[in-house]
Amino acid sequence: MEFELLDWMAQSGHDRVLAVQEARSGLRAWIALHHPRHGRAYGGIRVWNYRSEAEAALDALRLSQAMTYKCVLAGVAGGGAKTVVMADQILDRPRAMARLGEKIQELGGVYRAGPDVGFTVADQEALAKRTHFLAHHGSGLRPAGEATAEGAEYGIRAGLEFLDGECRLEEKVVAIQGLGAVGMALAARLIQAGAKVIGADPDSERTRRAEALGVQVVDAGAIVDAPADVFSPCALGGSLHDLTIQRLRVRLVAGAANNVLARPDHARLLDDRGILFIPDFVLNAGALIEGAGFEREGRTDWQPELLRIGQTVKRVLQRARDDRSTTVEAAHQVAREMLQREIQKTKNRAGASS
Ligand code: NAD
Q1: pLDDT tens-digit profile of 74-93?
Q2: Which residues, 6 or more positions from 80, have their beta carbon under 8 angstroms from its beta carbon?
């Protein structure tokens, strides 16, 4: 894989990338800090099998840049970062995580790490022994999934308003794929608001709990076929691809699952089918907003900021309509412009004071 790290960083505006290794534990990782806005960068730790160092580094670069866009759109005072750990190289996992924790600690707080794909509770425990620079979600705050579900509800409401001119959740049907931390909390909120909720999860304990809330449970393999107004993917990424998109019987896709489109150009396929797509990174920022805000200010009520997810959704959807672009392209464009304006303002201020 041909790949010039510094060229890539220059083009994407990366601040720094750290290569971290320890032979004894088999730790091989990259920490990419894209843009430490306001002195801080947020991003999860992904533990994944990569075919090469270059592939791992590129993933860290792309994901950290996407995280900056997510922060900018969410109004979070911070930028994006990402750690990727090469899973199949690890020899002693607790030791590898402890070493990674030391490296994060050495960064002095500019990087706030959180969980991502492949990162386990045991990893978190090993890491937390060596660093306290972890994205805050614990003491004093409600579980992350509940904050994410609240933001997702506001995003769904905004999407329906954009389509129909009004929301009227009590007349709507929402099909939720995945009844875990986010999906279950979202189901409860929507039922409370009067919507009909269809849900699916392979975990029978979770579907039992959902039924008790009033969710109409269907088979996990059939949820994409459910006739509804909204399909809300809240399970794993990549669940929307060539085949599942053809089966959808909804007008709006709006869920929390990260990277729900198997490929970015699947946004075009949804468009072609007349289905409006709210990008997951716009909709699922609730826990980021609440966690980052709590860490800075110690405040626990972030409802006004979570409500802004709805405004951002509308702005992105309108931009896509105006530009005839996909909503994913529009979200990136809006974030890039906001970031450029911010960088220009900082430059102007620096120029004025010198
Ligand atoms: P979770 O693990 O608590 O729940 C996921 C659920 O999906 C599980 O109950 C699992 O059994 C179910 N599932 C797996 N495969 C399925 C399938 N084929 N069909 C239906 N259900 C299936 O995870 P979570 O915290 O609720 O997160 C859900 C998604 O949202 C993830 O993609 C996550 O990355 C993303 N996300 C979560 C948060 C958060 O605050 N928790 C924030 C941002 C993004």
Answers
A1: 999 999 999 999 999 999 99
A2: 34, 35, 41, 42, 43, 63, 64, 65, 66, 67, 68, 69, 70, 71
Q: Which atom of ligand 1 is nearest to the CA of 255?
A: 30
Look at residues 36, 43, 40 and name the one whose alpha carbon lies nearest to residue 14.
36
CA–centroid distance, residue 111 to ligand 1 (Å)? 25
In CATH, which of 1.10.700.10, 3.40.50.10860, 3.90.380.10, 3.40.50.300 is domain 5-128?
Answer: 3.40.50.10860
pLDDT of residue 115: 85
| Ligand 1 pocket, residue 202 CB under 6 Å | yes
**CA separation for the pair 41, 35 (Å, rounded):** 7
User: Matching CATH topology for 5-128 and 144-336?
Assistant: yes
> What would the pLDDT profile of 103-155 be if each residue is shown by its tens digit?
999 999 999 998 888 899 899 999 999 999 988 666 688 988 999 999 999 99
Q: What is the pLDDT of residue 181?
A: 92
- What residue ranges of the chain have pLDDT lower than 70? 1, 136-139
DSSP conformation letters of 16-54: EEEEEEETTTTEEEEEEE---GGG-EEEEEEEE--SSHH
Measured in Å, residue 144 CA sits from the centre of ligand 1 at 12
pLDDT, position 116: 86
Average pLDDT of the residues of the chain: 94
Which pLDDT belongs to residue 137?
Answer: 60
Residue 182 CA: nearest ligand 1 atom is: 26
Catalytic residues: 82
Q: Indicate if ligand 1 lies below 6 Å from the C-beta of 140.
A: no
User: Rounded to the nearest whole angstrom, what is the distance from the C-alpha of residue 16 to the centroid of ligand 1?
Assistant: 31
Q: Give me the residue spans of the domains in the chain.
A: 5-128, 144-336
Q: According to the model, what pLDDT value does residue 25 have? A: 98
Q: Look at residue 352 in the predicted model and tell me its pLDDT.
A: 83
Atom of ligand 1 nearest to the CA of 147: 40
- CA dist., res. 290 & res. 301, Å (int): 8
Is 57 touching ligand 1 by the criterion CB < 6 Å? no
Q: Is 118 in the pocket of ligand 1 (CB under 6 A)?
A: no
Q: Which residues pair with 200 in a beta bridge?
A: 177
